[in-house]
Amino acid sequence: MKKYKYLIAALNLTLILMMASSCCHSKDSLDDISNYVPGNKYFKASMVGLHFLIETLPASESDSIMRQLISNHQLPVEAITAADGVYTGESPYDAYDYKHVVKLTIKSGKITAIDYNEVHKNGIGKEENEQYNIEMSAGGAMPSDAYPQMEKQLLEVQNMLQVDAVSGATYSLNRFRYALLVALMKADMKSKA
Questions:
Q1: 72, 78, 80, 81: CA torsion to nearest 10
Q2: 169: domain CATH number?
Q3: For the residues of 67-115, what is the DSSP string, one character each?
Q4: Which of 37, 40, 97, 144 has the fewest CB atoms found within 10 Å of its own CB?
Q5: Which has the closest alpha carbon to 178: 30, 15, 24, 28?
Q6: Strand, helix or coil at 183?
């Protein structure tokens, strides 16, 4: 059994590296933060790999990996050192053609407004997609309920790692945090410019 676990881990790593190398040659939403960790030309690939893991691993495992990446690179989880402004953070598209997008307003080191959604390539977000919300209500939380709850928590606690999952929307929490992380890195980079 142990042999298979290592084989699966090696295959996952290979897939991540293949994805990262193919995606990181064209301009995309992560280019703005690719130099957040100066001297690490693979940082953007790490962020692409993190998104892949969020989409493929159990939520608890991807949460642990995200926390480790944040710790290793000292990435921002709150706006305390961020420059005032409006910032957008987004992921690459997932296997279902959704990207996870957050728009933050920061003033005096505090997040004062936030809007999160998972937006399809066709431009329609899960939060306003009535049919999607009806389908999700049968087995979990509807995005139209879950996203505002996560946004409210963030405004209260001001630290993305202290936002708790909404019942039935566990995977959305790590997607939410991923988009926040990208936006907070942009805000932090602006404050250091």
A1: 40
A2: 3.90.1010.20
A3: HHHHHHHT--SSSTTPPSEEEEEEPPP-TTSEEEEEEEEEETTEEEEEE
A4: 97
A5: 30
A6: helix
Report helix, strand or coil for 38: coil
Of 23, 43, 73, the domain-final residue: 73
Q: What is the pLDDT of residues 133-159, one digit of tens each?
A: 999 888 778 999 999 999 999 999 999
Candidates 27, 46, 55; CA nearest to 171 is: 55
Each residue of 78-89: pLDDT tens digit? 999 999 999 999
Number of structural domains in the chain: 2
Phi-psi category of 116—alpha, beta or left, where left has phi over 0 and alpha has psi -120 to 50?
A: beta
Instruction: Report pTM.
Output: 0.86
| Phi/psi of residue 4, nearest 5 degrees | -70, -35
